[in-house]
Every structure is written in C-alpha cells, then in structure tokens.
Recover the amino acids of this structure.
C-alpha cells in the first residue's frame, strides 16, 4: 500500500529552519525500501516524532509516515508495534476521511494481514470483509484495489481449507484484474498463481499446471528469472510435477528454483532450505 499512499504526499518546501528534517529522513528510506528494513525502521522512527512536531496528526503526510513505519515493522517481524500503529492509523483515517474512503480500507487490509499472521483469523476475516465493502462503495467492484482485498480474503480462506470459498474469490480477482490491469500484469499473475496453488492442494493437477505456467510466463516477462515471484512459481511447478509423477520435470523445476534462490538470497536463507528439502523429497 506504500505506492497508493504516496499519492497523497504533498511536497513541503516552505517550512523554516529544520522543519523539513522529517521529509529528508522519509525520502532516505527510498534507497533502503525492500533492501534493508532495519534501516527503514530506524529512519522512520526518527522521522515520526519530527513530523508530529511539524505537522498536524491529521495530515495525510503524517499518516503516510505511520503507514510506512507499520509496513517496515511487519517486514522485521515486529507485529506488536505494527499492530499498534495500524490501529491508531485506522482511527485517524476514520475521523479524517470517513469509513467509506479507499485509504481507510487500505489500513483495514494491513491490520487484517497482521491478525492473519498472528493466527487471529476471525478478526482478519472481519476486517477483510469490511475493507471489501468499503472499496466497493468508494471505488466500485471492478477496481484493482477491490480485487486485491478479494484476493487477500481468498488467501485467508485457503489457509483455513475453505477451498470452495477461496476458489470463488480467486476467480473473481482474476476476472477483475484481467480487465482492470491487463493479462500481462504481475498482479494478475499473482491471482493465477494463487488459484494454481489451490488446485494443486485439491488434486486438480491439470488446471493447476495451466495456471502456474501462465503465471510463470508473466513473471518472467515482468521481472526476469531472478525474482522471488518467478522462483515461487517454478518451485510450485516442481512440487506439482512430483504429485503428478513427472519426476524428471519435477527435478528440473526444483533444481532451477534452488539455483535461482541461491543467487537471490544466498545459501543461508529459509527459501534455499525449502528448495533443498523439496529436492530431497
């Protein structure tokens, strides 16, 4: 949601003295985002109280800082601090923007993701459902953000083995994304990948293969092979080929996944360990 919220930053250039220091710190996170989350946390923790001094707590810039610090906390596994920030942010947005705003819905999705990771699935489901309704009212049910919230709820249901409900949500997300963002977009591929994974779990191997292979092709065109999404798709295809008894293909996909992940992450990453385990099986 970082890119979405960045649309609301107003570039401030007229404050006297050192009142822009929060902005300098915030801008510095751009070079570390997705690369060094600990550094992002340090910069944003320093920026937030400075922004509180210089800005109204109800300003959109201040809320962007809160949001991004919450996202960074999630990336380093500090769910407690992330949860506190998103709860506070939801209240601010509720008062400033109203419950039918897309920005409010975005924070609901973020908080739902935290509850899902913490295993509080009923709370996560309630928030996803609220976000879906808010997006429907604010943006319509053919908007990419609406599709993303539908996709998240599908993933929650899949994790609970509620496969029929998850399948319906994934198909809905695929249909919306195909029209709204096109059939070559990596987010469209993400929905294909999710449905392929669900079909693998439920034994619908042929359809699973179709969706995985289409997702893989889109990821390669979008990112190249040295990307986590591409390796997730090759890894899933390898596991699927094992299930189908196509062991030569399985070994090829799993070996490719292992080699690519070593290049991306190094030898000590959990994804590399997962690939080694899949090959051993």
């Amino acid at each position: 949601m970082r890119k979405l919220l960045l649309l609301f930053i107003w570039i401030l250039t007229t404050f006297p003295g050192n009142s822009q220091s929060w902005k300098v710190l915030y801008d510095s996170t751009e070079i570390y985002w997705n690369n060094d989350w600990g550094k992002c946390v340090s910069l944003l923790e320093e920026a937030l109280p400075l922004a509180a001094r210089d800005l109204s707590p109800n300003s959109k810039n201040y809320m962007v800082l809160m949001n991004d610090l919450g996202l960074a906390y999630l990336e380093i596994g500090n769910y407690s601090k992330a949860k506190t920030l998103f709860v506070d942010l939801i209240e601010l947005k509720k008062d400033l923007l109203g419950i039918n705003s897309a920005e409010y819905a975005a924070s609901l999705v973020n908080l739902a993701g935290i509850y899902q990771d913490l295993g509080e699935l009923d709370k996560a489901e309630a928030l996803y459902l609220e976000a879906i309704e808010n997006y429907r009212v604010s943006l319509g049910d053919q908007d990419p953000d609406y599709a993303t919230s539908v996709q998240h709820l599908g993933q929650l249901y899949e994790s609970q083995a509620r496969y029929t409900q998850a399948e319906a949500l994934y198909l809905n997300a695929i249909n919306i994304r195909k029209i709204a963002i096109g059939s070559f977009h990596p987010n469209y591929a993400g929905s294909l990948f999710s449905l392929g994974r669900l079909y693998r779990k439920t034994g619908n191997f042929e359809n699973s293969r179709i969706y995985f292979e289409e997702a893989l092709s889109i990821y390669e065109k979008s990112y190249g092979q040295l990307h986590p999404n591409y390796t997730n798709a090759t890894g899933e295809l390898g596991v699927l080929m094992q299930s189908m008894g196509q062991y030569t293909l399985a070994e090829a996909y799993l070996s490719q996944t292992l080699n690519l992940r070593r290049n991306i992450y190094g030898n000590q990453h959990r994804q590399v360990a997962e690939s080694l385990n899949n090959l051993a099986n």
